[in-house]
Amino acid sequence: MAELKRPVKDAPDGALKTRELKTNVILRGDCIASMNALPENSIDLIFADPPYNMQLGGELHRPDNSRVDGVDDEWDRFDNFAAYDKFTRAWLAAARRILKDTGSLWVIGSYHNIFRVGATLQDLGFWMLNDIVWRKSNPMPNFRGTRFTNAHETLIWCSKSKDARYTFNYEAMKNLNEGVQMRSDWTLPLCTGEERLKGDDGNKLHPTQKPEALLYRVLLAATKPGDVVLDPFFGTGTTGAAAKLLGRRYIGLEQDPSYIAGAKERIAKVVPISDESLLATPSKRSEPRIPFGTVVERGLLPVGTVLSDPTGRFTAKVRADGTLISSDYRGSIHQVGAAVQGAPACNGWTFWHVRMGKSLVAIDMLRQKVRAEMGPALQ
User: Between the CA of residue 31 and those of 48, 171, 286, what are the distances in Å?
Assistant: First the structure.
């Protein structure tokens, strides 16, 4: 538990009276005051779903005249854009103070607010990493037929500075996407069915509850097991539920007691993944280095073995010193791979293949075999 001795005045309900970091809690109170009661540089990731400021001019009805249960709550009402911008700058400034230099911030919004939030992020010194388009596979129709169906929301992902060393689990995202690099357009359904929390009256408890699949992807992408995730607009606890499942710690900030009660009940039912080996996806960049010569001297690729690219267009032979020789070039697996293609660079481990039976297999398989055999000695 991190602790600073400076006392905190007027701490929100549930917050401690000293600047100490307690996790897996929901703090009731104003989000700005709550963040100001936390220690600096203590949070690994902030996920924020702030008020949309939808500026609704009246009730919306379906063609059958039934009322659409939209966002018309008091917390989404602001007098004007200036009031909304002032609020946005205040909570983002508070968030920046508590975010670690190695952390990142995600904020989600619609066309009503995301551009104003984005401008403020840049004004405060955040560095944009990506904007993610969450395409809703089951969006609400435009009942009046006066505009396009609003079928997406935008997430902005940013770090505290241009040179920040933030977390990005590239391999995990690639694996989640069946081995293909994850793109910045995500197609996921709205929160519906059993996942949607209901109040005592049978209506949805929160008008903008996000699907757990969305937070699952965000946390898997940008945090590590044990990291602290803060949500300043906690609502009914989607961020907390995903964090608990994935072995992350959470801090939720919320004012509405009915939302807090729903969130607590919901999170209590989540069974976390207890085996950490099932949570972490090692980065290839962090794996121990294996020289190609080690594969050769171990006899996994005998001297004189002919390697080729996947198409068989280019070939080269393995030399005793762990280099390759082709008809025109000699050098490392990377140098020769680049030279035969006329390319500036090449990952020789994935470019060169060896025939095993009827199949061509990337020589990277042999590197992984060496890593597995040598195990802890490489760490």
Answer: 11, 34, 37
Structure tokens at 155: 């997430």
Instruction: From 240, 241, 238, select the one nearest 251 (Cα to Cα).
Output: 240
The one-letter amino acid at 57: G
Measure the CA dihedral 14/16/20/25, to 10°: -10
Residue 290 to residue 76: CA distance in whole angstroms = 56
CA distance linking residue 114 with residue 99, whole number of Å: 20
User: How far apart are the C-alpha atoms of 347 and 76, rounded to whole Å?
Assistant: 51
Residue 331 tokens, joined: 């050098």
Contact 139, 149 (CB under 8 A): yes
Per DSSP, 144 falls in state T
According to DSSP, residue 182 is labeled -
pLDDT at 55: 60
Which one-letter DSSP state was computed for residue 198? B
Quote the tokens at residue 134. 């969450």
Query: CA torsion sign, 160 to 163 to 166 to 169?
Result: positive
pTM attached to this predicted model? 0.74
What is the pLDDT, as a whole number, of residue 214? Answer: 96
Residue whose structure tokens are 């983002």: 92
| Phi (first) and psi of residue 286, to 5 degrees | -90, -10
Q: Apex CA 94: angle with CA 88 and CA 95, to 5°?
A: 85
Q: Are 105 and 45 in contact (CB under 8 A)?
A: yes
82 sits in the region (left: phi over 0; alpha: psi -120 to 50; else beta) called alpha
Q: Where are the beta strands (DSSP E) in the chain?
A: 3-7, 18-20, 25-28, 43-48, 99-109, 127-136, 152-159, 185-188, 228-231, 249-254, 306-308, 315-318, 324-325, 330-331, 353-356, 359-362
Residues of the chain with pLDDT under 70: 1-19, 54-76, 284-286, 375-379
CATH number of 3-56+68-284: 3.40.50.150
Q: Please report the pLDDT score of residue 144 as a whole number.
A: 74
Tokens 């539920």 -> residue: 241
